[in-house]
Design a protein that fits this description.
4-stranded antiparallel β-sheet, 11 strands, elongated
């Protein structure tokens, strides 16, 4: 039986492999592929053989300890001669229910966590925005750089486009640089102690395109070009950290990588979720005009008020009009980038739900199997009870009581186990406590309902037995 079960499990794993690979490709693009290699086959074979060996040894050990005379007198073990086996089966049900509850709690917490992440305000509006990546000519190619900004202006004039801008690294993509900064008029610390902040290069209109609020001061303008007064926008978090209780507008700072350039702070932008929706702490960012720095490529953000499917091809034609060799790539809706940033959480949810569903099914089947076997062995007892006047409800209640006892013990042990694992679960969830009582209660109720359902079928079958037939059969 164990080897047959292992073989069936391998067949199911083989058919489910495609499902898991597709989930990996969808949730985590570029993730490694998985396969059933010899080590997996070896583990499955050993696990199957060990399971059969352990089950057989336990049964044999119990049989060797049984009283043969009592078993013969009780009618081939149909009464209390099997009490030891009943305890073993109940212990297995307790273990199944406990493990099922732990996984159900984990799945419930992941579902609530993902829901909480979808409610997080990223600090910008992704709806109606399309992103695309384009190379930008080097500063030495002044004519080509000018034509690039003409290309951006042409994109803004495309039908349906309400705003367009460019930045060197989009939020939530893990790009961009961190640079140490110093402030004019303050003592300069040694390089190792200088604060690192996110350094972004953007064109005028970037804040407006993504609807990032401008809290104070002004945005970049077309006058903020190379050779003009170097300026910078800072985020609200950077202002809070380095200018508490002060107005930073008009103050100056420098990047330690280019200490010869002193930049004037001209505005304060709202905070955005730069490192991930599940990172509660905002990131200190500064923005410099793209035309005052050199960069190899930029990401365009284009906001439209209608169907955006034609924006990519139209922008590519405009870019090729500047230089046919310049490629436009990675045309992706901003909402898709936002969803991609949650790929790890969605895949963790996929794994938890898959394992919880399997454990839930095994728990329900285990309860049903134990009760069906137990009821079959107690047919004579149940028949006598019914012959003496027991009602259908009495029999159902008897079977339910027998099945729900190990279930409730398993639920208590599983809840304790999930509580013990709260430190591990806390690293996987966001916006919900790893000991959330609602999740624990819902998982326990779901398991209890499954147990009741698994108990009802054997109980109903027990009530269908004709007492006379059962008694004559002995």
């Amino acid at each position: 039986l164990a080897i047959a079960g292992g073989a069936l499990g391998l067949l199911l794993a083989r058919s489910g492999q495609t499902l898991v690979i597709n989930a990996l490709a969808e949730q985590m693009p570029g993730a490694i592929q998985i396969e059933l290699n010899p080590r997996v086959l070896g583990f499955t074979t050993i696990a199957s053989i060990f399971t059969g060996f352990a089950a057989g040894m336990i049964a044999s050990w119990r049989l060797m300890r049984s009283n043969v005379n009592e078993s013969l007198k009780s009618g081939l073990g149909k009464t209390d001669a099997d009490s030891g086996g009943r305890g073993t089966r109940s212990a297995l049900v307790v273990a199944q229910v406990a493990l099922s509850l732990v996984l159900l709690v984990g799945a419930g917490l992941m579902i609530r966590s993902l829901w909480s992440l979808y409610q997080v305000d990223p600090g910008f509006s992704a709806s109606g925005v399309t992103t695309m990546t384009a190379p930008i000519p080097e500063a030495s190619s002044e004519g080509e750089r000018t034509r690039f900004y003409e290309f951006l202006a042409q994109v803004r004039r495309l039908p349906g486009v309400t705003a367009a801008a460019a930045i060197d690294s989009l939020p939530l993509t893990g790009g961009g640089s961190q640079q140490p900064i110093v402030f004019d008029g303050r003592p300069r610390e040694v390089f190792a102690l200088q604060p690192n902040v996110g350094f972004r290069m953007a064109t005028p209109g970037y804040l407006h395109t993504l609807k990032i609020p401008l809290i104070a001061g002004r945005d970049f303008t077309e006058e903020d070009t190379e050779g003009k007064n170097p300026v910078v926008l800072i985020s609200k978090e950077l202002a809070r950290q380095f200018f508490p209780g002060q107005n930073p507008i008009g103050k100056r700072l420098r990047s330690s990588f280019t200490p010869e350039i002193s930049r004037e702070i001209v505005g304060i932008a709202g905070d955005i979720k730069e490192r991930g929706l599940d990172v509660p702490e905002p990131v200190a960012l500064l923005y410099v005009p793209l035309d005052q720095r050199e960069t190899g490529s930029v990401s365009l953000v284009v906001r439209t008020n209608g169907d955006a499917s034609g924006i990519g091809p139209a922008a590519a034609r405009l870019l090729h009009g500047i230089n046919p060799e310049l490629p436009l790539r990675d045309v992706i809706p901003m909402a898709e980038l936002l969803a991609t940033s949650l790929a790890q959480q969605r895949f963790s949810l996929f794994l938890f739900v898959a394992m919880a569903a399997l454990a839930f099914t095994l728990g329900a089947v285990g309860i049903y199997s134990v009760l069906a076997y137990s009821v079959r062995r107690r047919v004579q007892e149940i028949s006598i009870r019914m012959a003496l006047g027991a009602q259908v409800n009495d029999v159902i209640g008897l079977v339910l009581l027998e099945g729900m006892k190990p279930t409730f013990i398993g639920i208590v042990l599983g809840a304790f186990g999930a509580w013990m694992l709260s430190d591990i679960l806390s690293r996987l969830v966001y916006g919900v406590s790893p000991t959330d009582p609602y999740t624990f209660t819902a998982a326990a109720l779901l398991l209890a309902l499954a147990a009741v359902g698994a108990c009802l079928l054997p109980a109903w079958r027990a009530t269908r037995v004709d007492p006379a037939t059962a008694l004559r059969g002995d």
